[in-house]
Amino acid sequence: MPYAVFTAEVITPRGRGAVATLILTGDADLLDQAQLFRAANGQSVSSQSPQRIIFGDWGSQPSEKVVLCRTADDQLEIHCHGGDAAVRRILADLRQAGYTTTDWENKTSRAASGFAEECATAIANASTLRTAAIALDQQNGILRAAYEQLQITDWNAATRAAATDQLDALLRWADIGRHLTRPWSVVLAGQPNVGKSSLINALVGFSRAVVHDRPGTTRDVVTAETALEGWPIQFADTAGIRAAAERIEAAGIELAQTKFAAADCRILVLDSAAPPNDETRALLAAWPDAIVVANKCDLPNVWNDALPADALLTSVTAPQGIDQLARAVIKRLIPALPPDGTPVPLSHRQIDLLQIARSALVEDNQNEYASATEAILAGSV
Asked: Which fold does the domain 7-105 belong to in CATH?
């Protein structure tokens, strides 16, 4: 007997995954009536054997190539291209055919508290196995237990001191928590033609940036994402910084300087085969916290003693020093790792509330502290 309600649910998260999966509930006759799917074997969806993998075309021309499987008499799965455009098209077709559509985010939002929703979202949006494993630990009860321990029933100096230690332990891992679902920003800067684009290509492992021996080739910020030791990283290649620049290039240089200042990690690239100049010295003085890279170390070093003692020697053509640079980036971004079972705050909302609670302890403000710690688990601000 057909279902009175037909539903279509996207169960994979948004992003750049290779495949998206939808689950359809209800009798398959509705899909056949809408003529949305054409199986390569020529049979209707309702006549296909359960658990059989079916390849075919979805929708009118140009069609989407999809894989369909009837997992039960009243349920089937559709697997399509993971991009948003393909998923939106299929959902629109299903709504027009009479299906009620939703996605896992909306379903989770209705079924769970804000805190539980944040945990589920962090797992779904984690881009590496390492960050997903940390997020999964939090969902399994570690983080909730830590937040529940923040509640103070007897407000006095001793309980405030204990709560301060607990908050400091949680906030120690705030930066890792912020980057479970978004990559760290690593920006390379330097004068033109020092090899920034080539270094990023080597670090990421493929040619993404424009590489040319003419100064001023990169006029915008070009980004490429990768994972180093399981941590998501976005490298940004910026316009070469020099005083004598044409108007369009100067705009790119200004953007580069802004991006460089906002980076989680800064890499200042020098050309060890080119003599130092006033602009290079100014960059070194302006950014003392940057990782300094002396590139093109396969060529004669003309800097001699002027080269910073802590500069990393690299060469893309040799190759040399690329792995050392990658390790230096990770050490700068993540100087310490949370041991297994460590509570790690998962969202900006949680981190903001933890900081409010920490300030309330310093100010001896019991009401503000209670409000902040209760809001963390309630999922409100």
From this structure: Gyrase A; domain 2 (3.30.1360)
Per residue in 176-191, pLDDT tens? 999 999 999 999 998 8
pLDDT given at position 15: 59
Determine whether 44 is exposed, middle or buried from the number of CB atoms within 10 Å of its CB (0-12, 13-18, 19+).
Answer: middle
Residues 6+ apart with CB under 8 A from 83: 16, 20
Lowest mean pLDDT among 22-26, 253-257, 325-329, 340-344: 253-257
Domain ranges of the chain: 7-105, 112-173+339-378, 187-333
Query: What is the reported pTM?
Result: 0.72
- Domain 187-333 CATH assignment equals 3.40.50.300: yes
Each residue's pLDDT tens digit, 307-341: 999 999 999 998 899 999 999 999 999 999 999 99
Is 360 within 8 Å of 379 (Cβ atoms)?
Answer: no
User: What CA–CA distances, in Å, run from 380 to 85, 125, 350, 356, 374?
Assistant: 32, 21, 9, 14, 9
